[in-house]
Amino acid sequence: MSPSAQTDRFVHDQLPPLEQWPELLYSTPELQALQQAPHLNLVRELLDRAAEKGFADRPLLRSPARTLSYAQTREQVDRMAQVLQDLGLLPGNRVLLRGGNSIAMALAWLAVVKCGLIAVATMPLLRAKELGEIIAKAEPAVALCDAKLLQELQLAQVQQPVLKTIVPFNDDANPASLESLAAGKSGLISACPTAGDDIALLVFTSGTTGKPKAAVSTHRDVLAACETWPRHVLQARADDIVMGSPPLAFSFGLGGLLIFPMWAGASVYFPDIPYTPQAMARLIFDTGATICYTAPTFYRQLASCMQVEAAQRASPSALRLCVSAGEGLPDATRQLWKEATGIELLDGIGATEMFHIFVSSPPDAVRRGAIGRVVPGYVAKVVDEQGQELPRGGVGRLAVKGPTGCRYMGDARQGGYVQAGWNYPGDAFLQDVDGYFFYQSRADDMIITAGYNVGAPEVEDALLRHPAVAECGVIGRPDEARGMIVKAFCVLKSGLHGDAALVTELQDHVKASIAPFKYPREIEFVPSLPRTETGKLQRFKLKQL
């Protein structure tokens, strides 16, 4: 393999010891070619080589204001890369990116990675304290920040002087903005000749279980991810128009809304307004979007809006693939979406630590209640506490291997995630005789009540089938008599109010839907549920209540 081009070894030097690394598998011809490639820069492979693949004049980045072809995107990225070089940055330096989903954010991310720098993208809603924690750990010298989001980053910079320079973007009128500085550049630049093992990005986990961790992905990791789920399950086409709500700072959003469309020669639409269910339904029709990515909770809200929008249109939407990930997909939501649109949701489970989805099945191979089968390129099994594979039908921990795997930067929790070469994402699963995986709960969220194992998602799915429930979260509450009891937090649909009669009605509904011992002995009505910016339910916050 080629030597590293990253002269700054800050992240490389904080990778876990080799004995704590996952075993990486390159089991298909495409993956073997990536393993053997002397140099890999993912932006060169996906953007610079687009002309070789016939994509140069095809649209890549779309918004209400403009559309950039692959060739135009490359020119803009190259100009921005020259600005980064002028700042004196060296390969391996970290660059913090702060912005919502937009063409400007996508261009900035691509420019950073093309230069051999390490992208540290952050969620737009993070405040100064949270940004300061990321800066303290990643030590970026430069940040690229959407002009509308400068204030919190500037407050963080005061406390973290290691961040020396903030360059605003999405601000053409500002002569100091990234776009203005880039306008004066030639656009003639070659991609940094990074090795496959050189680091492309740090992604700070979304915090469903507490303190975020910095997960490392290399150039090879990202390109290997393109050769697994996108190739074998998603199967996007060059004429696809992709849209969705996951942030580009989240690996689900980065893959679905930038990397994987580029791999397929497709295009991505970024709106200039926040997504609401009503706005997304309207834009799906207006833009001709064919692929949509969002979380289960949003699909549930979106279903009725799609029906309303369809009733007002002369022709159906062009939508053909809808991807759900980020949290467990209740079967009630899957069926609601199918009734509203006729489209079978494409479910999947992935992990920030492994970049993207590794268990999933295409819509024509769906089994009700199951997430899917292991994606080609990966292997997976359900094991007991000693790591021994369980007979099919047993509930245990999910263990996964493939061409991507967990490497935390400077974090003792590495030893908990990777054991004997296997990745343990922290989920409890059941695998049937046909190889389909059924999600039960987070491994540490399994509710053991009076000797029975109860998976919170199963109870949530039952509650969501009741017409009064808009959202719900289920946890185990400590109980002296039973060890734990099942407790549900329910958000009711607009105009409804919770009372003792509704509690009894919901309990009876669950008893009639699934095994009676699984019913929630306590139900609390709440106005909203704690979620991460990516839409994941934060059960640990419910437990704190």
Mean of residue pLDDT values: 92
Q: Write down the CATH class of the largest domain.
A: Alpha Beta
CATH second-level architecture of the largest domain: 3-Layer(aba) Sandwich
Roughly what fraction of the amino acids lie in strands?
15-25%
- Runs in which pLDDT lies below 50 for 5 or more consecutive residues are none
The third-level CATH topology of the largest domain is: Rossmann fold
Shape: globular
Number of helices: 17
Largest sheet: 9 strands, mixed
| Distance separating the two termini | 52 Å
Residues in helix, %: 25-40%
Task: Describe the structure in your own words.
A hairpin with a 3-residue loop joins strand 24 and strand 25 (about 485-490). This protein is of the alpha/beta class and about 550 residues long. Helix 3 crosses helix 4.
Write the layout of secondary structure elements.
Layout: H1 29-36, H2 42-46, E1 59-62, E2 67-69, H3 70-86, E3 94-98, H4 103-114, E4 118-122, H5 128-138, E5 142-146, H6 150-159, E6 165-169, H7 178-183, E7 199-204, E8 214-218, H8 219-226, H9 229-234, E9 241-244, H10 251-264, E10 267-269, H11 277-287, E11 291-294, H12 296-311, E12 321-324, H13 331-341, E13 346-350, E14 357-360, E15 373-374, E16 379-383, E17 395-401, H14 414-417, E18 418-419, E19 422-423, E20 427-431, E21 437-442, E22 447-449, E23 452-454, H15 456-464, E24 469-479, E25 483-492, H16 500-513, E26 522-525, H17 539-544
Parallel strand pairs: 1-10, 3-4, 3-5, 5-6, 9-10, 9-11, 11-12, 12-13, 25-26
Antiparallel strand pairs: 1-2, 7-8, 13-14, 14-15, 16-17, 17-20, 18-19, 20-21, 22-23, 24-25
